[in-house]
Amino acid sequence: MSVSDLSTVRIGFIGCGGVADLHARAIARCSAARLVAVSDRNDELAAAKAADWGADARATEQLLQADDIDVVYVLTPMESHIELAEAVLQRGKHVLVEKPVSYDLDGIRRLIDLAERQGKWCVPGHSYLYLPELARMKRLIGEGAVGQPLSMFMSEIYRMPDDRARLYHGPSIEVLCHQIYLMVAFLGAPRRIQSFAGAIRRELFPDGDEQVTVNAEFESGALAHLYVSWAGEDETADPWTFKLKVLGETGGMHFSRRDQVNGSVDVQREYPLYLEMFERQTEHLVRRCILGGEPPLSTMSDALRTMEIAAAVRRSFRNGTVEALTF
């Protein structure tokens, strides 16, 4: 990739849903970036969000063709990611594709090839590795600081309200990709996985995956356990709202997204580390990748591996199988 001669990276959004608010806040805090324009299939939503963010509302094709936009964030539902990301790259712009990138594995492969041919960055919205705590864990594990890795435990637990649950696929599609790409980053790709899914509110989760658990086995002998639930909250003394633990032969490491909590019993709590990962990802994409020519911390090849494993997870809990993985 060539190093850009830009001083300010100009950004456009396709999609103005909830995650776009987080990206807009992150861009506003990056002095080397500016949100220029947004589009959405809902014109009224695009106009309202553009006014909130100090940007223009444009038709999607106008945004794709614009000379005043360097990178486009594809923030639409997953089903349209590949088509839109291809259109962005074909028009000579960098692209960030929100997670999950796609269950269309051939489509992800096309994005990898097209980005290489165009000389542009195509980056998945794998944001957790940009947090300093998790980047440090990855580095230390690679350096052997905890010895041979033995096990990894990771959970994400919260109650998804009924009205919001109707807007999304289940957590095996929407959320589990985070756990999978972190597992691969820390331990590599597993050789076998087995998963189970369970739904309490079956009318909201026809696939049966209101909560999902995954066991993974690695060639080294290491094991991993991943758990994602939209069924309830963990308000115990040691909450597993979002927790990650890696144990090795000579040590271990731990991370919780609740290490910092803002708010009180009368105010909805905020978890600043969640917003920080968007800010860190934006800073890295803008300053290190687009302006500096360095690679992202998670690549579209990582997204391909993640979604291959995610597909095996769904086959496992649907068919009651142990899935062997070859890459």
From TrEMBL:
Residues 9-126 form the Gfo/Idh/MocA-like oxidoreductase N-terminal domain. Residues 135-253 form the GFO/IDH/MocA-like oxidoreductase domain. Keywords: Oxidoreductase. Pfam families: GFO_IDH_MocA (PF01408), GFO_IDH_MocA_C3 (PF22725). InterPro entries: Gfo/Idh/MocA-like_OxRdtase_N, Gfo/Idh/MocA_oxidrdct_glycsds, GFO_IDH_MocA-like_dom, NAD(P)-bd_dom_sf. SUPFAM superfamilies: Glyceraldehyde-3-phosphate dehydrogenase-like, C-terminal domain (SSF55347), NAD(P)-binding Rossmann-fold domains (SSF51735). PANTHER family: BCDNA.GH03377 (PTHR43818). This is Gfo/Idh/MocA family protein.
